[in-house]
Specification:
Elements: H1 3-20, E1 29-33, H2 39-47, E2 52-55, H3 58-65, H4 68-75, E3 81-84, H5 93-99, E4 102-106, H6 109-121, E5 126-131, H7 148-156, E6 163-169, H8 177-198, E7 206-208, H9 215-220, E8 225-228, H10 230-233
Parallel strand pairs: 1-2, 1-8, 2-3, 3-4, 4-5, 5-6, 6-7
The protein binds pyridoxal-5'-phosphate.
């Protein structure tokens, strides 16, 4: 199936999920997750009207598009944005801050400080999401919301002037069934409500949750951004490294 057909089917499912949840379609932003796909696929998606792209590796995006501004220019669309959604090590933070329009996977104070430093040098404001780990899976990246690290990060973020906190991101654990997945998304929303009260200087309006296999559940639980890869671009041809 073509990208245009995939997008049409996806759009219908998003609209159905919004309707079922009593939400307006405009409340849910679609991020096209283009990792592993060539630059031509991104351009084709942009030509179909998609403007927000998610990539999970700094180097891969750098190789295929140079950086987000170059991609935006090549598509001749000022609205286009490319964000990093994959795990970021602090030693690659400088490059990531340069290459992307936003970092949706901030999960430590050390990383936030590095991103802030580079953004300051580049004289650029960098929108960020905090990636939250809500499952006990050992391998999952993300910040434990009940940890001392989380408190430290939240207290320091208002001083990191180049970073614009926009909200939270999570990946649901695998193999927990629909109820477990939904509980995870609900937990992210509850956490957001709690942190929005406790840290009024920070903006938590974005809830990035839900992928190809589970976005209707995420929409039901209040997602404002869903991250869809395979349902748009087709199956990835090789496994992705974090
Ligand atoms: C790959 C990826 C997605 C998209 O996954 P699909 O199942 O292909 O839709 C979403 N979020 C993150 C963080 C990813 O790494």
């Amino acid at each position: 199936m073509s990208l245009a057909e995939n997008l049409e089917h996806l759009e219908e499912k998003i609209q159905n999920a919004c309707r079922a949840a009593g939400r307006a379609r405009a409340e849910v932003e679609l991020m096209a997750v283009s990792k592993t796909h060539p630059i031509e696929a991104l351009r084709e998606a942009a030509a179909l009207g998609l403007t927000l792209f998610g990539e999970n590796r700094v180097q891969e995006f750098n190789e295929k598009a140079l950086h987000a501004a170059a991609f935006r220019e090549s598509c001749k669309n000022e609205a286009i944005r490319a964000h990093l959604i994959g795990h970021l090590q602090s030693n690659k933070a400088a490059r990531a801050a340069e290459v992307f329009d936003g970092i949706d996977s901030v999960d430590s104070l050390k990383l936030a400080v590095r991103l802030n430093e580079t953004a300051a040098k580049l004289e650029k404001k960098l929108p960020v999401l905090l990636e939250i780990k809500l499952s006990t899976e050992e391998t999952k990246a993300g910040l434990d919301p009940h940890s001392a690290d989380a408190v430290q990060l939240l207290e320091r973020l208002p001083d990191l002037a180049q970073l614009e906190v926009r909200g939270l991101m999570t990946i649901a654990p695998l193999g927990v069934g629909d109820d477990g997945t939904r509980a995870c998304f609900r937990a992210l929303r509850t956490l957001r409500d709690r942190w929005a009260q406790a840290y009024p200087k920070l903006d938590f309006s974005v809830l990035s949750m839900g992928m190809s296999g589970d976005f209707p559940l995420a929409i039901a639980e209040g997602a404002t951004r869903i991250r869809v890869g395979s349902a748009l671009f087709g199956a990835r041809s090789y496994p992705v490294q974090a």
